[in-house]
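Please go through this protein, sequence plus structure tokens, and consider how the sequence yields the tokens. Keep your notes short.
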Amino acid sequence: MSVSSPFKMRLVHLDLKGAPPKVSYLAEVFPLFRALGANGLLIEYEDMFPYNGHLRLLRATHAYSPSEIREILHLATLSELEVIPLVQTFGHMEFVLKHDALAHLREVALFPNTLSPHEAESLALVRTMIGQVMELHPGTRWLHIGCDEVYYLGEGEASKQWLQQGQNNKAKLCLSHMKAVASHVLAQHPTTTPLVWDDMLRAIPEDQLSASGVPQLVEPVLWDYGADLDIHGKALLMEKYRECGFSRLWAASAFKGATGASQALTPIEHHLRNHMQWLQVAGGGPVDMLQGIIVTGWQRYDHFSVLCELLPVGIPSLAICLQSLLRDCLHLRLVSGGFAEDVKARVEDFLGISSLEITDFASEEAASFPGSDILALVTQVSLQLRSSVDALLERDRYVTGWFSHYHRRRRLIHPVMVQHIRPQVLSLLARWSALEQELQAALRRVFYPDAVEEWLEENVHPSLQRLQGLLQDLSEAAGPPPLLASPCPDTGQDP
């Protein structure tokens, strides 16, 4: 595929710390990524990597095996997608530091997110993790070492003591660890360049950043997932990094997972705007500094948060975002506050969908991309399940008038009202139970059982349990009436 873009590398980010896809699904979507304009992958394995030895405890239940990692790399090669692995080495270390055996390496004893930069064992841990990942990724040109959102840095007891000495400050503390990790990567793998997220670097004064030696070791990835980028501010930040000695920069946008920790459906227009503005940044920044762009697709905000939009749900957004990055899209303007029309039409045709409007996905039957059935079913659940249950329980005249919360607690109901309410409950429960079974089967083809269970428990089961609870209360209320001489006095407690 021959394209021209201001971003030479266009990487799709696979965030595997939540709902990691089975290898069989990756085999289906890698050719699609390539056809849409991607030429690389940033794979954030987290606990899906098959760590071994004393690090075996880091593995998730369904972690990929070494042979599956090799198969993923082979599939990427077949689709001409260059793979860059990501290993967290500072912040977002929850999947490591949550374990009791490694909890002593936390910056703050209570929180498992940040690694202490003072312990010699911390650097040894990171070196071992990097070594095992690199062993399965020989010859990779880049290795992403994370280093974003290093929360609570400087707040551990060892850091507090260190900060009281001489000219020490938090920026120096951050840069020293980053330098130690990057130096190790380059010493062991001279042809591999470390990448780092840039948020910990932004506020560091130019002179301190320049003197640290870090600009000669890493390439920063400027990330911003908003729909209203400060384009001028980004250009100034790129210029700052150039002045500090960084020779190459990367950008990072988002196609999903950046608009809400529990987001189920992807707001496509938000992400398209984000990409169109990154194109403007690319056009106004230092010439030839941008190495590429990472189109992130976060699956969790962190190791402990709920799932964001599932990968199949985000594919229409990914498609239009990748297509927007190609040169022939550079000067397209957004029409009617929505999508650039020719890009929209090309993506709709490519994916076999009639519209990129979220409300249309629920009834989409002609879609041809892998996982389109999941998109349709998830859309139905997200747009209709809770609202239909709310309509029955909170707005139906028979339920609110004759089987209110007061009546349900006391199992009181006029017998004729059972005939009005029960058929509605049974009909709604049958409809959504059948859809749940269909969705469960679709999800199981793509994801492992724990991810399927989590998504259904978060998004489907609460509404079904409300219906089942109403049905149970109806059954109990329709039995022999309670022997009450008068209404229960309001004691503030359940009778």
Notes: The first helix runs from residue 23 to 36. Confidence is low (pLDDT under 50) at residues 328-339, 483-495.
